[in-house]
Design goal:
By secondary structure, this protein is α/β, with parallel strands linked by helices. The chain contains 10 helices and 13 strands. The protein starts with 5 loop residues before the first helix and ends in a 12-residue tail after the last helix. It binds iron/sulfur cluster.
């Protein structure tokens, strides 16, 4: 590769690169982002990486990646009269301040391969303001086929998997949820995430009542002790229905966990919620208070990226993802199909290996359970 002169190598804003990387013909979906991420780790905040590329799609995809990763795209130069090759100058951003720790549940990373997430569907009776999955009554269902869920679970368990978490959307809107859970919970303990609003009567109640209490734990979303915050984030009347659902599930003999999702400015609600959960007998270990993730419908929240969040493999009907809060983020898609699980895990292990090789700065655990 011919090196540009020192003057040419300076970006439009006059920043000399601390490191250069030749991406050749790689596009952002074939390893380029991982390589750049590794290169970025070798420079300090405020320093510049100069990327050489001959792949036109990089011009469209890289700005979005830089924004998500907290970096600044300074300059794009075309060395070929509109056809490339191109040089892109990217300034490394400062690490984002971590979310306040006192309110939010902390945890240790689970070994990759021990926990698997499965989206049963994406449609929902609610359309919460922070929904990372962009679920709503109008969302495409993207139903997880029962046979795919069963095969994924079998493969996962055969490889040592110990915990399956089924989420959505609202899982009780999946017309075959009972069968899906029978096929999976017979192999591994399942935690089922629900808003607890639609299983209170009819055939969905029958589905609930038929579930194996020993194998299935319910995790219900409840954001506040009183309706105000919960209903503001999740819809009028949803707090009362969630409380009714929690009581019903407990009466039916289920272990019920409760998960609250809060913006930092609403953290003061956490203590009142703990008092309310004490009153209805939800154990401390069965509570998680998590911050909003800056994904899906959420305009602000914790930044989620390969660099900042520990991986928790997540399968949907149409792919696999780095983490369950990132299933609308194309930069965190690991595979275009949910199977085989082994391939999904191998890709994630490769990403981690690159990060470790690049002197990983460490990622935070983003607790959803
Ligand atoms: S956060 Fe949960 S309950 Fe709310 S819209 Fe999303 S999937 Fe539905």
């Amino acid at each position: 590769m011919t090196r540009p002169s020192t003057e040419e190598r300076h970006g439009a804003k006059g920043a000399a690169p601390a490191v250069e990387f030749d991406g050749g013909n790689m596009d952002c979906g074939s390893g380029l982002l991982l390589s750049i991420t590794s290169a970025m780790r070798r420079i300090g905040a405020g320093e510049v990486l100069l990327l050489h590329t001959r792949e036109p799609s990089v011009l469209a995809d890289l700005p979005a990646w830089a924004r998500l990763a907290g970096h600044e795209l300074l300059d794009v130069r075309d060395d070929g009269g509109g056809r490339g090759p191109w040089r892109l100058s990217i300034r490394r951003g400062s690490p984002r301040p971590p979310a306040p720790r006192a309110t939010f549940t902390e945890g240790t990373a689970v070994p990759l391969g021990s926990r698997l997430w499965l989206y049963s569907n994406f449609h929902c009776n609610l359309a919460c303001s922070y929904c990372c999955a962009e679920s709503s009554p109008k969302a495409s269902a993207r139903l997880m086929p029962v046979e795919v869920a069963a095969a994924a679970t079998s493969e996962f368990v055969a490889q040592g998997g110990r915990e399956l978490l089924v989420t959505g959307g609202e899982p009780f809107l999946h017309p075959q949820l009972g069968t899906l859970l029978a096929e999976t919970a017979s192999q591994v303990p399942v935690t089922l995430l629900t808003n607890a609003m639609v299983f209170q009567r009819g055939t969905r109640r029958e589905t609930l009542e038929a579930l194996d209490r020993k194998a299935v734990t319910l995790q219900v979303s409840l954001d506040s002790a009183e309706p105000g915050l919960h209903d503001r984030q999740r819809g009028a009347g949803s707090h009362a229905k969630a409380m009714t659902g929690i009581r019903l599930a407990r009466e039916l003999g289920f272990r019920v966990r409760v998960a609250a999702t809060l913006q930092p400015e609403d953290a003061a609600n956490a203590e009142a919620l703990h008092v309310a959960l004490d009153a209805i007998g939800i154990d401390r270990e069965d509570r998680v208070i998590r911050p909003v993730a800056e994904e899906g419908f959420a305009a602000q929240g914790v930044h989620i990226s390969l660099d900042t969040v520990e991986p928790e493999p997540t399968l949907t009907a149409d792919g696999a993802w780095w983490h369950p809060v990132a299933v609308t983020n194309p930069h965190l898609k690991v595979a275009d199909t949910p199977l085989p699980v082994e391939q999904v895990l191998d890709v994630m292990r490769d990403v981690i290996a690159v990060q470790v090789a690049g002197n990983s700065q460490g990622r935070a655990v983003f607790r959803c359970t």
